[in-house]
Amino acid sequence: MPALEIIAVGTELLLGQLVDTNTPFIAQRLADTGIDVYAAHTVGDNRARIATAISAAPDRSDGVITCGGLGPTVDDVTRDGVCDALDTECERDEVTIARMEGFFASIGRPMRENNRKQADVPRGSTVLENSRGTAPGFIATRRDGKFVACLPGVPHEMETMLAEQLLPRLRERLKTDERIVTRVLHVTGLGESEIDHRIDDVFRAGENPKIAVLAHRGVCDVKIMAKARSDARAAEMIDPVERALRERLRGHVFGSDGTTLPQAIVELLRARGWRLAAAESCTGGRIAAAITSVPGASKVFAGGVVAYEDEAKTVLLDVAAGVIRQHGAVSEETALSMALGALRRFRADVALSTTGIAGPDGGTEEKPVGLVWLAAVWPGSKRSVSTNFPGDRDDVQTRATQATLSLLWGILMSEEATIHQSRT
Amino acid sequence: MPALEIIAVGTELLLGQLVDTNTPFIAQRLADTGIDVYAAHTVGDNRARIATAISAAPDRSDGVITCGGLGPTVDDVTRDGVCDALDTECERDEVTIARMEGFFASIGRPMRENNRKQADVPRGSTVLENSRGTAPGFIATRRDGKFVACLPGVPHEMETMLAEQLLPRLRERLKTDERIVTRVLHVTGLGESEIDHRIDDVFRAGENPKIAVLAHRGVCDVKIMAKARSDARAAEMIDPVERALRERLRGHVFGSDGTTLPQAIVELLRARGWRLAAAESCTGGRIAAAITSVPGASKVFAGGVVAYEDEAKTVLLDVAAGVIRQHGAVSEETALSMALGALRRFRADVALSTTGIAGPDGGTEEKPVGLVWLAAVWPGSKRSVSTNFPGDRDDVQTRATQATLSLLWGILMSEEATIHQSRT
Q: Has the ipTM of the complex gone over 0.95?
């Protein structure tokens, strides 16, 4: 298996002011592509040290990927370090200049001389276009045929360039004939240890495919990784394992290979022609933001109300003042009434609501920080759940959002099943 | 100033399955102590590669700190790598064995042979006691007097050992009397290259304090880093540079040292006793979510409406159907009318609105993807802006949210200025 080294460039990384998430991201994508990472390094924005690190790495491995230091400021010196390491000079890439002029014209800002510097690449490099920013990347080749590929340090720019520009070229260049194919099942409504317990026998069945469980807040990924010489062979190895896992996690797998819970929900809503509304208190707009992050959400999302104050719950969601007075703003009754109000106001087919105490203040002994009531209503039916979420304000808001979306997904799936049954 | 290198040990780091937060933590503490980090590295659980990395590092610097690979399992081989690098052997530390026996007795678990291995340290090392786990760390010395310090990889064990055991010894050993103090200014409404242009002369004025500019989407950080013998001396060096930077970035610095734009806004709203409302279309709840992520937002945030459909704009925000018909949903008129509707419905003191085309679909020649109208209204005044944001759906939504918050911040600041003037 070919092996590369990764060099992250940035003085702020060596000062500990920024956590380097680029290196693990690149490492993960390389692993998926069947490329080992021999070692990783971090150097400051220092031309000589960058050059030294770049010179040394390909002696141990097949090449090196750097990220960071391609920006327009005087402390961005990666391209100079590469030139020193390869004993060459930079030349201005005119195609990039033209693209940058278009970009600056479109945002109505002047293009300065320091921006032009970003179009300088080592002589003879292959330019890697930056579809999400100005600084292009490049692949430069040493005299011995080993390469130095340079990516920008801004994560979303780097991620897109890696996927679209660099990995296809590495696959060809390194002729990786063994690849690691990964399929990921996304699971909601089950904790990591519960998943672990349910899939234990599948887990122990073999080393290839290998299984790994990764927990985020409120969602778990189950990864199936197969090493094989072709995608087709890998798929043959993965398929039976996937079937076994889906069997054991039935009713909880909402998607695979990068599908998000909001995407799965938008798809299910679209399939049945339903429109969604949201009435949020403690989640403060996160449910609406999650749904509207999905392209095409406008077809299934009617809208939402962030009713942060009690008065807003009354005025915009028709929650009776007496309900709040009697049961409190954080109660099952208020949650259901909020959802019903949103359902009617937006003339939606299903509506969600949240009301809770995100903290750090506002908790009492009876209703502590982390207590959240969620509800969903749709014509003829309703659901409500209360949970005490652990963690800080961000944890509570994130987990409450996930739990509410998870509730909706379960409803859409179970109803689907009913319709499906009645048809067959 | 003395300089060290850091080596993180762990194959899972090179597979990208774990983000290394230990290195930035150690780097930050070293900076505070007046020790530079020359470079950082990551190697897998491989004895030979660990030894090679440890041998090379002290040639460039005063010593090396490793973390990880001190556990009881067969793939924990850091101590062996150190022995190879220093051409010595391990010996069992009996004090540690006694401590471990006490620890296992206290938790009622048997102590196994692989646990004993954790008490092995290179001959002649100084043992660093682990007050939060079993594996001790150690400082071993090379023949030339340079050192290798090894810490465990479990973050809370590492952090305590670093603070209590290692740093006091490094201070003495390296006779550090210098420290690096950092102040960060957070800037909105100016791009990285525009900032660079404005502060160029301050930037070039000297190496200490050093200045660095870091861009996120819609926000930039300007860092001022001073090396000095005391915090007081560092502050004296930073203060005039900060004043010069604030002067050149006037009207764009919304906070310092970690303040977020929503935090700055919540603080300004609180200071003048104003309540905010939001009417969001293309930002889909992100403005409300950003504001409500701030603890205490409930005191200044009345609520919001996510009016994704035209009908919602009419029903919940009182936008006249004729306005949408005549000017379109994405127009200055609709944006202003949405904001006004939110102001009235929530009886707020200031209201924001967004309406635009986040994409990927829905763009036309006249109104392309990325076009967003933002507005703010408050009693007696209003502002509206249109921008063409570059990038994908997420970019457009993120940048539109930042721009709207930036608009509000500017309003709150200018009004503050007015009030301030009228008082003096």
A: no
